[in-house]
Every structure is written in C-alpha cells, then in structure tokens.
Histidine phosphatase family protein (Vreelandella gomseomensis), 197 residues
Amino acid sequence: MSNTLQAPYDHWRNRYLLIRHGHSQANQQGVIVSSPEHGVTNFGLSEQGEHQLAQRVADWQWPIPTRVVHSDFLRTSQTAAHIADAFGLTPSVETRLRERYFGELEGQSDERYPSIWVLDAQDAEHQHLQVEAVSAVAKRMRAVIDDWEQTASGETIVLVSHGDPLQILLTALAGKPLGQHREQAALLPASITLIGP
C-alpha cells in the first residue's frame, strides 16, 4: 500500500465535523487505552471532559449536524451523546472510528506515544510492538467517509473519534505522506474540525 491515499474529493456530497472526544479519564491518568477490551466499557470522560462538551454545545458555531456517528469506546460514546442530545439525534456506532491500537503499549504511560510517532515518520507501514500501522488506520478512517459519500448527500455528519486516527485521516485527505500525521496541528480534546464543501 502506498504511503498516501487518493487525493481529496473534487466534489463533496456531505460536510463532516470531525470531533475528538472530550478530555477523558485516560488523559487524566496519563495512560494509553487503545484496546476495545479496556476502552469500550471503561475510561470515559473526565469531569473536565464533561464540562468541555457542555461548553461546545452551548457555544455551537458549526453547521447543525444531521447525523452523529462515533467510535464505540466509552469516551467517544459519551462525547457523541452530548452532541446528539443537543440536536435531537440518535447516535450510531462505527467501529472503524476506534482508537489506533497501540499493541504492547496498552496500559502504559502516554509518554510512550512519541517513540511510536518517530517510527511512523520513517515508515507508515510499521507495526513495532504490535502497534496498528498508520496505513491501516488511514484506510479504515477514509473508508468511513467514502461510504457516507456514496450513500448520503447534503448531510452534516459528526464523526467522533480519537486524536491519532483523526490526525491520520486529515493527513490522508490532504494527500500528504501518512508518516507526516504528527506534523498536523494537534487536535485537542473536544476539538471540532470541519471538512467538506
């Protein structure tokens, strides 16, 4: 697989609001939680994260969403619920939006992330320590948008995911080498990025 995915669409059928989950208990504890075994039922939003989402909804300045789609991790499910409740929508789970799996680093300090990002910059295919390859993350994240572009039109779709997957997706959509995903401006918890027309 090449280091870049197909360039962005010439014509977008939908708008997408890419939302990183709010500040989580994993962020609070400085721990890597990337496995569904741990992340789906545990490590939801922190109190800070709950406040962030309440503030986002109160100060909403983006297009009004028509759909809310989210990773099944607890922190993203809770983030999606805040957005969906505010607009009278029913959120739906999309497992392809899950956190990037960090393999043997699961449960370790989040200070281990940079060592993987250095390897990412050298090779988007690497799976050192059983970490999910950047190329694999890009493929599944891009497939979510591809599917919506083929099946819907005129929608504003909220996609609630995680920091690394969203930065990798934005890198792919920009047509840049995937190993450069950490050169994207960091997506802060509860940040919202609009893509599309």
